[in-house]
Amino acid sequence: MTTANPTLLRPIGRLLSWIADLRTAIGLLLLIAIGSGLGTAIPQGETAEFYHQRYDSAPWLGMVRGDGVLGLQLDHVYSSGWFLALLAWLGLALLLCSWRRQWPALQASLRWIDYREPRQLSKLSLAETVPCSDPAACLDQLEQRLLQRGWQVRRQDGRLAGRRGVAGRVGPLLVHAGLVLLMVGAAWGALAGQRLEQFLAPGRELELVDLRGNSQLSVALDRFTIQRDPAGRPEQFTSQLRILPAAGPGQPAPPAEPAEISVNHPLRTRGITLYQADWALVAVDIQLGRSPVLSLPLQPLPQLGEQIWGLILPTRPDGSEPVLLSVSDESGPVDVFGPDGASLARIVPGGEAVEVRGLPIRVASILPASGILLKRDPGVPLVYTAFAITLVGGGLSLIATRQIWAVIDAGRLHVGGLCNRSLTGFATVLPQLLAGLGSEAGAEEKAEAAAQQL
Predict the structure, then answer these.
(1) 39, 31 in Cβ contact below 8 A?
(2) For residue 421, which of 168, 171, 228 has the smallest C-alpha distance?
(3) Which residues contact 262 (CB under 8 A, 6 or more apart)?
(4) What are the tens digits of pLDDT across the range 377-414?
(5) Residue among 395, 302, 349 nearest 53 (CA)
(6) DSSP helix/strand/coil, 122
């Protein structure tokens, strides 16, 4: 039978010790926090053109251009290889710390230690000696006091051992397990989750498919309303939806389910969460002269300000003399500008036609669209479970684990104790446990003697 070479095991042991070191874990947490900050500062999940347009002319922090953002995977930080590697490294560090430190500490706290000699107790953090005329009676009294206060006691001939708060040793293990499970859930959600944001006009449908291209469900928008304050500013967006579950192979389509979402009131169904994210104006129904009502798409005009949409409309059959129509509210009005930026007219939706350069223009209505965000995160149950385990473990970690031993020797009771936290508090409790042991034992002896005389 061959044994492992100590020369080879020594570097491995040093490596494991370094990985499980608290300073290494703190460094990893700092790097993960910095990575999370990057994911917050830089928009995530956009197209490559978006990052080139945004950062090529104005590099991020004056250094990182669009190619750098894409090359460093800063466009998808939370699912990037380096961020997941940091999470895996931290998870390994927590597992090694639990295996090398917390688990042995729990095993040691569950194992009864038998101290037989007073000199062994004198080396503990807390040690006291109580003179007793009847040490056995003092030991009995101490045992009763410990039991009354919820201690576990193991009594042997001329000595006892007690412990309390062993559950506190389980706390760090649960905290580590919860953190590891949290990172697994976050990584799973980043790799296997889906995120889709799209503007949906009333009467349109949005289909969500899985990674294999199979339909999971469809969302149809029946009605979208915007509640505004007296100043005209949006206060709340509400979408009346119909959820159309996907039918199985060879099965009839299940009935649609009505639903409603609004800001801060998402809908969770079949592992998918629907959020009311934003709003936009997508089309304008317009009539030119005696033409039928035309539905023309609107485009955002960031050059004119936020939440302003418009379109270029020619006023002649040959496409000449165009005008710009702009609008910022689904209820209007629609402003008309010439090529030189001069205001030509203001049209109220649903009102009378207004003549612009000899062409009557009537706006029948403006079509708003609901910005719906669909997210499927399979790691959410693990994340919630991890939070619960971590909270329970954190609560248990606050419990101090206390141990006490007592040994009888030559008319004296020798007591010693240990505590993993709040040693000062235990130093206050121990004298209270020992107070009056000798006097109580003497009082019992006098009571027994008086009873015998009677």
Answers:
(1) no
(2) 168
(3) 236, 237, 238, 239, 276
(4) 888 888 899 999 999 999 998 888 899 999 998 888 89
(5) 302
(6) coil
Residue 19 and residue 88 in contact, taking contact as beta carbons nearer than 8 Å:
no
Buried b or exposed e, range 408-430, using 16+ CB within 10 angstroms: bbeebbbbbbbbbeeeeebeebb
pTM, rounded to two decimals:
0.64
Q: What are phi and psi of 113, to 5 degrees?
A: -100, 130
Structure tokens at 333: 């009005």
* H-helix or E-strand spanning residue 5: none
| pLDDT band of 132, cuts 50, 70, 90 | confident
Q: Both tokens of residue 400? A: 């101090």
CATH of the domain spanning 112-165+400-441: 3.30.310.80
Token pair 């190619």 is found at 67
Cα 71 to Cα 81: distance, rounded to the nearest angstrom: 12
Q: In the structure, what pLDDT confidence band is assigned to residue 13 with cuts at 50, 70 and 90?
A: low
Q: What secondary structure does DSSP assign to 261-330, as a single string?
A: EETTB-EEETTEEEEEEEEEEEEEEEEETTSPPEEEE-EE-TTT-TT-EEEEEESSTTS-SEEEEEESST
For residue 73, give the 3-state DSSP assignment: coil
- Is residue 168 within 8 Å of residue 158, measured between CB atoms? no
pLDDT at 407: 92
Structure token digits, residue 16: 């494991």
DSSP output for 129-142: EEE-SSHHHHHHHH
Question: 369-400: buried (b, 16+ CB within 10 Å) or exposed (e) per residue?
Answer: bbbbbbbbbebbebbeebeebbeebeebbebb
* Three-state DSSP state, 44: coil
Tallying the residues shown for the chain, one arrives at 454
User: pLDDT of 95-110, one tens digit each?
Assistant: 888 888 888 878 877 8
The token duo for 154 is: 């193991």
For the chain, the structural domain boundaries read 6-105, 112-165+400-441, 194-278+372-379, 280-370
Nearest to 137 by CA among 411, 405, 452, 404: 411
